[in-house]
Design goal:
Helix 1 crosses helix 2 (31-44). The termini are far apart. This protein has 77 residues and is mainly α. Strand 1 (23-26), helix 2 (31-44) and strand 2 (48-51) form a beta-alpha-beta unit. Strands 1-2 form a two-stranded parallel sheet. It contains three helices and two strands, in the order αβαβα. It has helices at residues 4-18, 31-44, 62-71; strands spanning 23-26, 48-51. 51% of the residues lie in helices and 10% in strands.
Length: 77
């Protein structure tokens, strides 16, 4: 289990690797992409652009719920 210190070191390393480049992340609203978006946002801030595409195969109003949740977070969504 990573400690808080190793997490901070990891985010610093990610920020170093990306430099000032912009990162685009496909955000499905599932656990994997949501965690990736949160961790990347902590590491590189507004360099991260999250894109959500409602492909039409989600449950009723699920796309709206995902948009509502992620638009409240400090993400470029």
């Amino acid at each position: 289990i990573p400690t808080d210190e190793s997490f901070v070191d990891g985010t610093k390393r990610i920020a170093e690797l990306w430099g000032t480049d912009t990162v685009i992340l496909g955000l499905s609203g599932g656990v994997d992409s949501s965690v990736a978006a949160t961790l990347l946002s902590r590491a590189i801030g507004k360099q991260l652009i999250c894109i959500f595409v409602d492909h039409g195969f989600m449950r009723q109003d699920e796309g709206d719920e995902i948009e509502s949740i992620f638009s409240k977070m400090d993400l470029h969504f």
